[in-house]
Amino acid sequence: MVNFSNFRSLDPETADLAHELIDNADRQRSAFMSFMSLWMGFNGWMESVTGADHDAAMITAIAENRRATDAYEELMQDDDFQRRVMAFSQLWPVLNVRDVRQKLGRDAFWAEDRDELFDRCRLEGVRMQPVGWTNGDVPTWPQLLRTIYCVRCNLFHGAKSPQHGRDRDLVRRSDRILRMFIERSRCFEWTD
């Protein structure tokens, strides 16, 4: 399903837009705005190379792609990248905020402390990422990508605040790790 050459054969203005969004991320003062711009450029690349018409299919295709997995595993050999991924994983799991609101109510985040909230979320079957991950495990590429996507969804749907320390850490770490993956893997230049 994935054809990396698709991105290189896009209308030049369309491909330039994805690159500009990535470059624009560097100029943002806020990690929140940086991550939004970065994600939009990455999302454009994913749509192009997967041909998928919705986010879930794009994420699945890239998460299960051997070349992307190999690039991630190679990057995990770099101490700085690995340290960042492991620090990010210490904030996991990441709740799907829409699901929390639907199953536990809009005030769930303020009504309980974090441990109580997570216990209730598990009992109510609230979706969270990553699936199948245990604290202390080394995250796989699919787990990392899907968790970053969960942070993106929560942010884009208004459920992340720069005033909340955990939110700030999740967004900042997602931004930095995704940026490092794009830059160091040079995925926008991949061809088949």
Index terms:
11 helices; mainly alpha
How many strands, what sense, and barrel or not for the largest sheet?
A: 2 strands, antiparallel
- Topology pattern, helix = H, strand = E: HHHHHHEHHHEHH
What is Rg?
Answer: 17 Å
Helical stretch count?
11
Helicity, as a percent range: 55-70%
Strand percentage lies at under 5%
The counted number of beta strands is 2
How would you describe the overall organization of this protein?
This protein has 192 residues and is mostly helical. It is 67% helix and 2% strand. It has eleven helices and two strands; from the N terminus they run H-H-H-H-H-H-E-H-H-H-E-H-H. It has helices spanning 5-8, 12-26, 31-50, 55-63, 66-75, 79-89, 97-104, 108-111, 114-124, 141-156, 165-185, and strands at 94-95, 128-129. It has a two-stranded antiparallel sheet. The model has no long low-confidence stretch (mean pLDDT 92).
How do the helices and strands line up, and which of them pair or pack?
Blueprint (H helix, E strand, L loop, with lengths): L4 H4 L3 H15 L4 H20 L4 H9 L2 H10 L3 H11 L4 E2 L1 H8 L3 H4 L2 H11 L3 E2 L11 H16 L8 H21 L7
Antiparallel strand pairs: 1-2
Helix pairs in contact: 2-3, 3-4, 3-11, 4-10, 6-11, 10-11
Protein name: Apea-like HEPN domain-containing protein
Organism: Sphingobium naphthae
